[in-house]
From TrEMBL:
<feature type="domain" description="Right handed beta helix">
    <location>
        <begin position="142"/>
        <end position="291"/>
    </location>
</feature>
<dbReference type="Pfam" id="PF13229">
    <property type="entry name" value="Beta_helix"/>
</dbReference>
<dbReference type="InterPro" id="IPR012334">
    <property type="entry name" value="Pectin_lyas_fold"/>
</dbReference>
<feature type="signal peptide">
    <location>
        <begin position="1"/>
        <end position="24"/>
    </location>
</feature>
<keyword id="KW-0732">Signal</keyword>
<dbReference type="InterPro" id="IPR011050">
    <property type="entry name" value="Pectin_lyase_fold/virulence"/>
</dbReference>
<protein>
    <submittedName>
        <fullName>Right-handed parallel beta-helix repeat-containing protein</fullName>
    </submittedName>
</protein>
<dbReference type="InterPro" id="IPR039448">
    <property type="entry name" value="Beta_helix"/>
</dbReference>
<dbReference type="InterPro" id="IPR006626">
    <property type="entry name" value="PbH1"/>
</dbReference>
């Protein structure tokens, strides 16, 4: 995880009431899914096994009694799984679970998980799943991260832990992940990690009701969705809003993400936090009213770190890590009345084997701990490969609009940033002093150009002590935002 902080709850505060009606409607982008699910299975499909809601444990028992590949039709009503914490359903490969209108699987605050074990290619459609008591970092559906699951037209809400875990090739489509205690989705799988994840057309809202960053300071364990070591993800057409923390958070050795055509609104912290990860296409999204809770909290305590709507922390393009791009490309997005814009950050003291690396036990995709020791790290190629670098980032063709009066903002908002800290730690680090500050600012191919700005934007460059206006940002030595326009003026190329 990156910088430690506690998040305050309540994105739709009085100070941003002007934005709340648009947020409720899901205007100008992907719209509501929660409470708008189709009633697709009014009768049992031919050959399906009917499951009765009045018999406690009927779904578990019938799953155990039938062969792999069985389709189960859950009749209308509330289905329960047993009277102790280990009541659960253990699907077999290819099992399909279809909900009739009004079919609910309810953990009643007793059962830890609904669907468990490692079966492959399980399908869950048109079910509401609620009231489960998952533990920290665990999930209710696909608890053990089986591969190839399809979750479609489902509502998974009001659970502890995560609504969903993820496995390889998992597809989550047109589903409602709402008001869960920790995450809407927790995408982590032991071993080589998850490949081929798809999130499409979902509503991800109100998650982290347990306020985990306050409960466990510095845990990095909250948000609408959290991704860890996912290699290949398509995240498109989702409405990600009102989460108590980050909207989407990719943390540690993720790679090859396509995030497009989503609507991010009123998330308390970053809309997208991409941390110690690689190769991202971020395009065609709308960001509105994000980071206001976190930004105000930072400003109230005098913390001048540039809070961001899109936060790249030790993340960049890397051609040696195979992906559909070898860069981080941020283009065609609209940013409107967020606390700030985009922050590119690289912690000078964070690298493989450093005590400052909060992803403890993990190394970059280009090195190993043995090559990053005190005796080897100062020499090539280790000097470069032992760092997660914020590099090869291109920010272009975006629209940034900001009106501090609408947000009640008086300071430390409306900022764009490209910076690092002064390196100090540990004593054998080869990255002390201004080495990383100079690299991220001038030598790592990070470029803004051809953007459109409206409002009172300022730019933090090199370190937190340097803030410049648009003219200073475009002039040497920074030379950023060529061919961009400010406040409707002609673009200067």
């Amino acid at each position: 995880m990156g910088r430690s902080r506690a998040f305050l709850v309540g994105a739709c505060s009085l100070l941003i009431a002007v934005a709340c009606p648009a947020i409720a409607r899901g205007a100008d982008g992907p719209g509501p899914v929660c409470d708008h699910q189709p009633a697709a299975y009014e009768e049992a499909p031919s050959g399906a096994v009917s499951v009765d809601p009045g018999v406690d444990g009927d779904l578990s028992a019938k799953t155990a009694a039938n062969p792999p590949g069985t389709t189960f039709w859950l009749r209308p009503g509330t289905h329960t799984l047993g009277t102790d914490e280990f009541g659960q359903v253990a699907p077999k490969d290819g099992d399909v679970y279809l909900g009739a209108p009004g079919a609910v699987v309810d953990g009643r605050g007793v059962n830890r998980a609904a669907f468990t074990q490692r079966a492959r290619d399980v399908e869950i459609r048109n079910l509401t799943i609620r009231g489960f008591a998952a533990l920290q970092d665990q999930g209710v559906v696909n608890h053990d991260s089986g591969d190839g699951w399809l979750i479609e037209n489902a509502t998974i809400e009001n659970n502890a832990g995560a609504a969903l875990m993820a496995g390889a090739r998992q597809v989550v489509r047109h589903s409602c992940l709402r008001n869960n205690g920790q995450y809407g989705l927790n995408a982590y799988q032991a071993g080589d990690g998850i490949t081929g994840l798809v999130l499409e057309g979902n509503e991800i809202t109100g998650n982290n009701t347990g306020d985990w960053e306050t409960k466990v300071p510095g845990c990095g364990c909250s948000g609408g969705a959290k991704f860890w070591a996912v290699n290949g993800a398509d995240v498109r057409g989702n409405w990600v809003h009102g989460n108590h923390g980050a909207g989407l958070w990719a943390d540690t050795n993720n790679n090859d993400f396509l995030v497009e055509d989503n609507l991010f609104e009123a998330n308390d912290a970053e809309a997208l936090f991409y941390e110690t990860s690689y190769n991202l296409v971020l395009r065609g999204n709308t960001f509105r009213g994000n980071s206001l809770v976190q930004g105000r909290a930072f400003a109230a305590r005098g913390d001048n770190f540039p809070v961001a709507t899109v936060y790249l922390s030790e993340s960049g393009g890397e051609p040696r890590v195979p992906a559909r791009t070898s860069a981080i490309d941020i283009s065609g997005n609209t940013f409107a009345d967020n606390w700030s814009g985009i922050t590119l950050w690289e912690n000078a003291d964070r690298f493989c084997t450093s005590p400052a690396n909060t992803s403890s036990g993990y190394c970059t995709k280009l090195a190993s701990p043995s090559s990053c020791s005190a005796g080897t790290i100062a020499k090539a190629p280790s000097y470069g490969d032992c760092r997660w670098k914020t590099q090869h980032v291109e920010v272009h063709g975006n629209t940034f609009r900001f009106d501090p009066a609408r947000l009640g903002c008086t300071s430390l908002c409306g900022r764009m940033a490209l910076l690092s800290n002064y390196g100090t730690f540990p004593d054998w680090s080869p990255y002390k002093g201004t080495a990383v500050q100079e690299a991220i600012t001038f030598r790592q191919d990070n470029r803004w150009h051809d953007n459109s700005y409206a409002g009172q934007w300022t730019f933090v460059a090199h370190d937190t002590s340097r803030t410049v206006d648009p003219a200073g940002w475009r002039a040497g030595p920074y030379s950023q935002d060529a061919c961009s326009s400010f406040d409707g003026g002609a673009a200067g190329c």
